[in-house]
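Structure tokens please, single chain.
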Amino acid sequence: MSAALRSRKGPHQFDSLNVTAIGGGHGLGRVMSTLSFMRSRLVGIVATTDNGGSTGQLRNAHQCIAWGDIRNCMSQLANQPLAAEVLNFRFDESSALSGHSMGNLLLYTLDALSARPVDGIQLLSRLLKVQNRILPMAESPTDLVAVLENDMQCFGEIRVDELNQMPKLMALSPQVTATPEAIRHIQSSDLIILGPGSFLTSILPPLLVGDIAHAIANSSAKVIFIDNLTQEPSPAGYLSLSERLNWLEKQLNFQPVDIVISPHQDTDIPMPIVNNVIADARVAHRHQQDSLLQALNQAVSMLWPQRVTTASTDVL
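Here you go.
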């Protein structure tokens, strides 16, 4: 039985919370599928700066936002396994669509038929019977820019991941505005979840959108940072947890994180750490959903000790 199904039967801490989860496709999708029982009270804000693979091809040809991470979230939330397989289907080299993902093409098509990218995403959500809201961090295309210690600039997500040292700072080019729906949900949220995922290219991009960072800074919501289980293949992977959080604070000019979920110990972190999280038996870098839900429950209990655990009233 999945964590999402079990959570509807057993006690948990999320009955009356509004939650915003922020990140990239793989990690954000895992968090959202774990908490999918929350339905409309859970909204995911997805990074849209990817410039590689099928997404990069579509962006170069049509100047659209990056669809790959949105597709990944959709596939993990889809109730039917076949729907996930269709979204993730990739055309082989014998096809004129070589390298393209079916889900990316579908999202691009729905966008072309809609007034806004958000409308196309919402239409696909209804078709897949996804009851959580998925929003792009912005509806205009933008790219990651890393500024190095020597003030040289590195342009694009692919090159950022290939850096051999942490940049001095990160930015978006061009700067974009957040979707209004994303800002409204942050403002009404009790809890914000960051990660897991690539620190610079999945977690950070939405936080570089000025009005998203401003909304978080001025929100009363508590923030949970979910650390990766394994070392990521990027410059951030060589930093300790405390070094990454310090770097984030310097980048944003405020520290958003109130509590951390991580299997790693770090005595230099001033906020509480929840350690009881393990990996999926099949994929070492993917969180096992039952343990992730348990860790999230524990984190919420620590953030709000006065909360009374109640059984969910959701119907299977």
